[in-house]
Amino acid sequence: MEKEKPQMQLNVDPNSYMITLMNIGFEEEMFRFLIASANQGRQFVATPKHAKRIYLLLKQQIEGYEKKFGEIKTQLPSMPKSTTEEPKVGF
């Protein structure tokens, strides 16, 4: 008789989102991630050790992706400079 394998229940959101905003802040004991898509937002909290594991996993997955499909060319968005200019309206 074959031993039954334990099952893990996951609550996976079936929707895919195009991330429109990501904000990360940290304190000594936690990292806070806010990820937004359109009018939907999710906040996640991780210890520094777990945040580093997330980084390492993403790095590994991106490297595998780039080996298979080619380099992803991107950069971090620049921070807006504070200005006293009048806001431009229109295109």
Gist of the model:
The chain is α+β, with helices and mostly antiparallel strands.
Describe the structure.
The protein is an alpha+beta fold and 91 residues long. The chain has a domain at 21-69. It has one helix at residues 48-69, and strands spanning 21-26, 31-37, 40-46. The protein has a three-stranded antiparallel sheet with strand order 1-2-3. The termini are far apart. The mean pLDDT is 82.
What are its keywords?
91 residues; alpha+beta; 3 strands
Summarize the SSE layout with pairings.
Layout: E1 21-26, E2 31-37, E3 40-46, H1 48-69
Antiparallel strand pairs: 1-2, 2-3
Helix percent reads 10-25%
> SSE order in H/E notation?
EEEH
Shape summary: extended
First-to-last CA distance: 71 Å
Strand arrangement across the biggest beta sheet: 1-2-3
Largest β-sheet summary: 3 strands, antiparallel
Topology, number of strands: 3
Mean pLDDT: 82
Per DSSP, what share of the residues sits in E-state strands of 2 or more residues?
Answer: 15-25%
Please report the number of helical segments. Answer: 1
* Radius of gyration over all CA atoms, rounded: 20 Å
- What structural class should be given to the helix and strand makeup? alpha+beta
Give unreliable regions as ranges: none
